[in-house]
Write a structure and sequence with these properties.
The protein has 300 residues and is α/β, with parallel strands linked by helices. Helix 5 runs parallel beside helix 11. It is globular and about 60 Å long.
């Protein structure tokens, strides 16, 4: 039976380095997992791991659907990399589907961004080597860290690091191409009004790509209640709303405080909203290609 134990004397010397016995050891919040060789039957048990796997040419046998109702839980920016494969689609609605994963006989389980706890990690590790989140974020740890962990686990560390660097550079290039962005204040928020107001993007790292593009990001921790929405919006140059439909856009514009921003409101479509949410080496290039033009038009 596969185990997640570290074999003494066989561990790789640096993260992602292949050891003398052909294995790779990945460190994470629950310890270390030794993966004996490049995996061929990989299950993506978390919400966004399919993007990281597909980015380095690893086609999972199962993915976990998050939102959007996309075929096989894979969005348009990643779908061509399936190459005709039809992975099983899992759900986290009732927690990680341990029994369903066991029936798939994987040789690696990627369980970052899965809300993984120690008990479930131990259960999965009895099925196959399992990699967990690297730190305190059971969901949505910084995208670079998740990508790095997954790249190591599938023996693609160096390739993944190049992809991460390339994505970061794309946003830096946007700043160079749009000097007018420098210092402009931006709010990035969900595309729906909730009973308690507006929800800014979270965790905080989700706005890092805007900072790299030259913007200053509005300081808006937690929900922005209706009582202070006007004050927050008065302090920004542009608000980016991750709307998925015309109906969501109309609902936002029905609020007088949001409507006052006029052309300084930027509304996404479903694909761009998904690309911002997935925050992956495959989705972020979509953001770098499409969002700057929308913001530039709003600031003009």
């Amino acid at each position: 039976m596969a185990t997640a134990a570290l074999v003494a004397g066989c561990a790789s010397r640096r993260p992602g380095e292949v050891a003398d016995d052909g294995s790779v050891t990945v460190r994470h919040v629950f310890g270390e997992t030794r993966i004996p060789g490049p995996p061929h039957r990989v299950v993506s048990a978390g919400l966004t791991g399919q993007d990281d796997l597909l980015a380095v040419g690893v086609v999972p046998i199962a993915v976990t659907d998050w939102f959007g109702g996309e075929p096989y839980g894979v969005w348009p920016w990643a779908a061509p990399k399936l190459g005709g494969a039809e992975p099983v689609v899992l759900s986290l609605a009732d927690g990680i589907a341990v029994n369903e994963i066991r029936a798939l006989t994987p040789d690696l389980i990627v369980a970052t961004n899965a809300g993984l706890d120690r008990e479930t990690y131990n259960a999965l590790s009895q099925i196959a080597p399992t990699v967990a989140q690297s730190g305190s974020y059971a969901f949505f740890e910084p995208w670079q860290q998740q990508a790095t962990t997954i790249g190591q686990a599938v023996f693609k560390h160096d390739e993944m690091q190049r992809l991460i660097t390339d994505v970061e550079q794309r946003f830096t290039d946007v700043a160079d191409a749009h000097p007018e962005f420098a210092g402009k204040r931006v709010l990035l928020a969900e595309g729906r009004l909730e009973h308690d107001g507006v929800r800014p993007a979270s965790p905080a790292w989700r706005t890092d790509f805007l900072t790299r593009m030259g913007f200053a990001v509005a300081d808006a921790e937690g929900p922005i209640g209706r009582d202070r929405l006007g004050a927050v919006l008065d302090g920004v140059d542009v608000a980016v709303w991750t709307t998925e439909s015309d109906e969501e856009r109309a609902a936002l514009l029905a609020d007088p405080e949001i409507a006052k921003l006029g052309e300084r409101n930027v509304f996404t479509d479903k694909e761009l909203a998904g690309a911002i949410a997935f925050a992956s080496p495959l989705s972020y290039p979509v953001v770098a290609d499409r969002l700057p033009g929308l913001i530039a038009a709003a600031l003009a």
